[in-house]
Amino acid sequence: MSEMDATKMMKQMVGKAAADRVKSGSIVGLGTGSTAAFMIEYLGERLKSGELTDIVGITTSFQGDVLARQYGIPLTTLDAVDHIDIAIDGADEVDPNLNLIKGGGAAHTREKIVDALADQFIVVVDSSKLVDKLGSTFLLPVEVIPMAYAPVMRAIEKLGGKPQLRMGVKKAGPVVTDQGNFVVDVKFDSIDNPAELEKTLNNIPGVLENGLFVNVTDLVLVGEVKDGQPSVREISK
Prior knowledge:
The protein has 237 residues and is of the alpha/beta class. It has helices spanning 3-19, 34-49, 62-70, 108-117, 149-158, 194-202, and strands spanning 27-30, 56-59, 84-89, 93-94, 100-101, 118-126, 140-144, 162-165, 182-187, 207-210, 212-213, 219-226, 229-236. A hairpin with a 5-residue loop joins strand 4 and strand 5. The two termini are 34 Å apart.
């Protein structure tokens, strides 16, 4: 099995392991990204086979909307429900306290709303996303209202961050989120107190939300490839 095949199979295994935890009658937060996409596909298969019944999904992105419809998962919205039973989503970094950096797909604002509301929040990642300290491999995404991006970047520089406006790929100009905003990616030399930084950034006028997810995660399912064989292990608090 090639390394690429093993990686894909491992993502599928993690997605399936997460989908298997969803019970009939649940309201499910459907995350964004490649591993979450496999989870949505497997949920659809479980519904189709009749093994799972009476679930509704709440998506965190347009990507999730498209996939849920493709795989036959009925959708609802936050104004129509009063709770979410389980949310499943990927992450760009996971630290030993199960705090996360998310936002590589620029969907972190909607993800945080859904994931924080869920009774149980499960993160699906591969082992490359596990870090000793947040910010060590991934820039921290901050969603910003377009008119405020210049003053926000100056405020972030005063906090010791190095901000850059995320530019589109195959699109001229900045990335635009599902909410119509910009994303500023920030390099911090060291994020010593994620909870404090999350609040500080969100208090800058013009910032909608940032990619630090602190004390939200209940369980992490980690996919690994060892000797060409994919496997899944669990990390919980």
